[in-house]
């Protein structure tokens, strides 16, 4: 049995001095697709932030893509983030440049040098999200769903071991949410591990998978009832 990609043991998650989640025990293995659900304010984003090093883990143990979260140093964070692909609700594309340039910017920032290799990689990830023909466009020329697909492509650039998606469909209408979800499902079927925070129950019902719930300062696995 290989080592989990993510393991938290008796972890507590804080925002400043206030305890958001306590005694968190979670394990995610390679190839999993896991939902993180819970009402607004229950700690989903705080949980995600702890995983990508935006909030420190001060209590309990945490290991993610071979990084020890408890002993994570400031200088480790860019390297941790290269092994993670993070997708946000509001896409976070750079508005002053084209899609291709958005992706090339990330490749350069993460140490890629060879122009041909970079162009090939950009084409590959755009193809994965069915956006290969739109690379010359600016973000504002794309629909919300298309922008989110580009954000997923960007997350895939460095072959991440785990994709963290925080409310990726939060700004999208139901039909577009399904389209973005189909992309995430495809990527998962091709071997990528995904943790997705959402409060879109329609998606959960349509694409059932392992589900963790944040409630009353705790995280626990819920068993989905069959309709
Ligand atoms: N930057 C911050 N500073 C202090 N407290 C914060 C901060 N961000 C969130 N909190 C608090 O931490 C708790 C958990 O918030 P969090 O954003 O993690 O919840 P969430 O489940 O992601 O909510 P939503 O679905 O609305 O995004 C809330 O009580 C919130 O008020």
From TrEMBL:
Domain of life: Bacteria
Keyword ATP-binding annotated: yes
Parts forming coiled coils: none
One Pfam family from the record: ABC_tran
Sample GO molecular function, one term: ATP binding
Keywords of the record: ATP-binding, Nucleotide-binding
Gene3D superfamilies: P-loop containing nucleotide triphosphate hydrolases
InterPro entries listed in its UniProt record: AAA+_ATPase (IPR003593), ABC_transporter-like_ATP-bd (IPR003439), ABC_transporter-like_CS (IPR017871), ABC_transpr_LolD-like (IPR015854), P-loop_NTPase (IPR027417)
Domain (ABC transporter) ranges: 6-225
Record's protein name: ATP-binding cassette domain-containing protein
Organism name: Flavivirga aquimarina
Upper classification of the organism: Bacteria, Pseudomonadati, Bacteroidota, Flavobacteriia, Flavobacteriales
């Amino acid at each position: 049995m290989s080592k989990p990609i993510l393991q938290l043991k008796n972890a507590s998650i804080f925002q400043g001095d206030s305890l958001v989640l306590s005694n968190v025990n979670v394990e995610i293995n390679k190839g999993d697709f896991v939902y993180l659900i819970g009402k607004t304010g229950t700690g989903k984003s705080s949980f995600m932030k702890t995983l990508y090093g935006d909030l420190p883990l001060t209590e309990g143990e945490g290991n993610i893509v071979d990084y020890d979260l408890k002993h994570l140093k400031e200088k480790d964070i860019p390297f941790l983030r290269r092994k993670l692909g993070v997708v946000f609700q509001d896409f976070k594309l750079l508005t002053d440049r084209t899609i291709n340039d958005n992706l090339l910017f990330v490749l350069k920032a993460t140490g890629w040098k060879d122009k041909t290799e970079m162009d090939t990689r950009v084409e590959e990830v755009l193809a994965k999200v069915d956006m290969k023909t739109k690379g010359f466009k600016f973000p504002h020329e794309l629909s919300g769903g298309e922008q989110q697909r580009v954000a997923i492509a960007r997350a895939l650039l460095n072959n991440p071991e785990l994709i963290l998606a925080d409310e990726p469909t939060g700004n999208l209408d139901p039909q577009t949410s399904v389209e973005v979800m189909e992309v995430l499902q495809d990527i998962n079927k091709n071997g990528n591990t995904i943790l997705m925070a959402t409060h879109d129950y329609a998606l959960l019902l349509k694409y059932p998978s392992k589900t963790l719930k944040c409630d009353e300062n705790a995280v626990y696995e819920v068993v989905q009832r069959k309709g």
